[in-house]
Amino acid sequence: MKRVFSGVQPTGNIHIGNYLGALKQFVELQDENQCIYCIVDLHSITVPQDPRELRKHILDVAALYMAVGIDPEKSIIFVQSDVSGHAELSWILTCNSYTGELSRMTQFKDKSKGRESAPAGLFTYPILMAADILLYDSDIVPVGNDQKQHIELCRDIAIRVNNTVKKTFVVPEGRFLKAGARIMALDDPSSKMSKSAENIHSRISLLDDDGKIKKSIMRATTDSEGEIRFDPEAKPGISNLMNIYSAFSGESLEDIQTSYSGKGYGDFKKDLVGIVQEAMAPIKKNFNEIRETQELKDILTLGAEKAGAIAEKTMKRVKENFGLGF
Ligand code: TYM
């Protein structure tokens, strides 16, 4: 059995990009692997958070994990800050990372753009992510495309420690889905769909009601050509919508293109509205059933115990290999 690890930041507005790039894979993988899914609250404080909102969002993500189909009987679900090994290992890895490799991270460059001085946590963020992954001897990391560079860095750090200190870490592999790996913003298909974009119609959040889903899709940016054809370079808007259609319906891009030949964007968008509404309905229902329950908190408590036991073993090995303690 392979070990799978991934995480989502509890920053609100979890959207269909997060679902199609990551959460959908989380569910697919849980039958044949040992899966550990984390709510990475320590990552979210790399930018300022309202403490009360943060706690709310942590439970929201936990409930969404379960609402999309992650089964706590099969997978471990827990909150990152409940297991101290993440922060601890992160420091040890920080001492085995270089400022040069961190400054090449495109996410850091994007997030620190226009700031005179960026928080140090934003800079070292990928090291904490590497710690998350390496702490559990993870083999597979299901994520969206935007995390590719961070996974590469994690592999580099693991290989470096294995070669220069002692064989300590499993070197993980990223796992990316074809259709959902990079869902673009509906209002601007040149940038990725994001939780923090100001325009709410740039994304479809997993808890959006049917009216909002319809509005966001119907007003999504396309082009003036009117032909439903997959060409991300020349036709990024409609290509992004076709990707979403394909990821939700399971139909290939070629089949979608064929079945909409001669039809207009309006017809295509109307059908896509129906597909997305239908996919979101059970998620919302499940979310509402679990979100306010004690059971949800109990699952996180148990998850932290299980994750903590694995992390403790790794930390013992790490400390021994590095010569820490006595
Ligand atoms: P986060 O919280 O930004 O996003 C959660 C997951 O959603 C994917 N994703 C997307 N996929 C497709 N299209 C999009 N527009 C889109 N936007 C986001 C992300 O790739 C991610 O898989 N650093 C991570 C969280 C993290 C993590 C980890 C992941 C922390 N430690 C260890 C894996 C392993 C992040 O900020 O994800």
DSSP, total strands: 5
The number of helical segments is 13
Beta-strand residue percentage: 5-15%
Order of helices and strands: EHEHHEHHHHEHEHHHHH
- Please estimate the helix content: 40-55%
Q: Which strand order do you get reading across the main beta sheet?
A: 1-2-3
| Helical/strand content category | mainly alpha
> Biggest sheet, open or closed, and with what strands and sense?
3 strands, parallel
Oligomer: single chain
In the predicted model, the low-confidence regions spanning at least 5 consecutive residues are none
Bound molecules: tryptophanyl-5'AMP
Structural description of this entry:
This protein has 326 residues and is mainly α. It contains 13 helices and five strands. 54% of the residues lie in helices and 7% in strands. Helix 3 (51-68) crosses helix 12 (265-290). Residues 5-9, 17-18, 20-22, 40, 43, 129, 132-133, 141, 143-144, 146-147, 180-183, 192-193 line the site of tryptophanyl-5'AMP. Tryptophanyl-5'AMP is lined by residues 5-9, 17-18, 20-22, 40, 43, 129, 132-133, 141, 143-144, 146-147, 180-183, 192-193.
